[in-house]
Design brief:
4-stranded parallel sheet, 15 helices, 13 strands, 44% helix, 18% strand
Length: 398
């Protein structure tokens, strides 16, 4: 089992490579809330910590044979950089469909990339095959004592930087990060609460803890790809049972809203997985900690820029700053301009408008008008819809 002594040893080892990332006050996110900005870590994620500590602890014989990992994202980059800094070879098996930016980033850190047709499970099978064939050391992304101890150094840093902390929120995928952080915090300051956060579309640890046994999900689906894990590890499951005070889930819209809030209010970029901890606080998933000194670990910032605009749109919609309205107008001159005048009078701004004469919702003498509008917030959006309804316009569900 991972111990505080192991985590302290990892902290010493990591001094020469990992950044001590800042704890930054985030009052616009919530009262007495701060973020632990692991998105500012080397490689853009906390994964470097566990990977480096694991690799640095290998014997000379193991180092001579090299290491292997299976990942489509942050773990791949952490292992590649850690191996390069230790002067050893790393082989990274990556699903062939992974974003090119992540593949090239892994190569850039010195990893020998093996693209495997299929999905993560196919890449994992290839990694196991190569391990048996070449004698590599497999660096597991979460179910490994050394990896967990490396991640636990974040917990020690939080206690040093924010000694009055009363609750820490931690993203959970396989459970390596929260296992290390919770072990460190509970060993030093047992009264501090530690809460895990999973995406509602990938609640493997949430389900496992609630059922008292390890559960493997049939499938996972979430924009928080860094924590889209079907099955937690046996070691991490045991540590979560022992140290973690509770686990909650957040929706896709809540994650998107948190990413947007971090960009606008904190001027920092988070990936979906990293923003789950902030989403849990923003949407009061643990009401009993409201007003207490809270630290949210933003675990990484490697979001794929190709989906960032869609994430922002989701966040804007969730907070009422984009409103989609579909209604009906009589098909005769002057009717559309009357509708648009009402929109203008309320202070909404039109982003796009679609006018359809033939639609299953409309009568022969009517048209369907769909609008995407900029509004200030949810109250403003509701005011707009009420104004339209008060003036005889029927609002259709999207």
């Amino acid at each position: 089992m991972v111990t505080l002594e192991m985590i302290k040893d990892a902290k010493e080892v990591l001094k020469k490579v990992a950044r001590s990332t800042p704890v930054i006050s985030a009052p616009k996110i919530g009262e007495n809330v701060s973020i632990k900005a692991e998105n500012l870590q080397l490689t853009g994620s906390f994964k470097l910590r566990g990977a480096y500590y694991k690799i640095s602890s290998l014997t000379p014989e193991e180092k001579a044979k090299g290491v292997i990992a299976c990942s489509a994202g942050n773990h791949a980059q952490g292992v590649a950089l850690s191996a390069t800094k230790n002067g050893i070879k790393s082989t990274i098996c990556i699903p062939a469909g992974a974003p090119l930016s992540k593949v090239e980033a892994t190569r850039g850190y010195g990893g020998d990339v093996v693209l495997v047709p299929g999905v993560y499970d196919d890449a994992y099978a290839k990694a196991v095959e190569l391990t048996e064939k070449n004698g590599y050391t497999f660096v597991h992304p979460f179910n490994d004592e050394k990896v967990i101890a490396g991640q636990g150094t974040i917990g020690l840093e939080i206690l040093e930087q924010e000694p009055d902390v009363e609750a820490v929120f931690v993203p959970i995928g396989g459970g390596g990060l929260i296992s290390g952080v919770a072990c460190a915090i509970k060993s030093v300051k047992p009264e501090c609460k530690v809460y895990g956060v999973q995406a509602a579309g990938a609640p493997s640890m949430f389900d496992s803890i609630n059922k008292g046994e390890i559960i493997e999900l049939a499938n996972v689906s979430t924009i928080a790809d860094g924590i889209a894990v079907k099955k937690p590890g046996d070691l991490t499951f045991e540590m979560c049972q022992k140290y973690v005070d509770g686990i909650v889930t957040v929706t896709e819209d809540e994650i998107a809203t948190a990413i947007l809030a971090l960009m606008e209010m904190q001027k920092t970029v988070s990936e979906g997985a990293g923003a789950t901890s902030v989403a849990a606080v923003m949407f009061d998933k643990v009401p009993e900690v409201k007003g207490k000194n809270i630290v949210c670990i933003v675990s990484g910032g490697n979001i794929d820029v190709s989906i960032l605009s869609r994430v922002i749109t989701k966040g804007l919609t969730k907070t009422g700053r984009i409103t989609e309205v579909t209604t009906k107008v009589v098909d005769k001159p002057g009717q559309l301009i009357h509708l648009l005048q009402l929109v203008s009078d309320v202070g909404a701004n039109i982003i796009s408008i679609d006018h359809q004469r033939e639609d299953k919702k409309s009568e022969i003498n009517s048209c369907i008008v769909s609008m995407v509008l900029e509004t200030r917030n949810i109250m403003h959006s509701e005011e707009l819809c009420k104004t339209l309804q008060d003036n005889g316009y029927e609002i259709f569900e999207s």
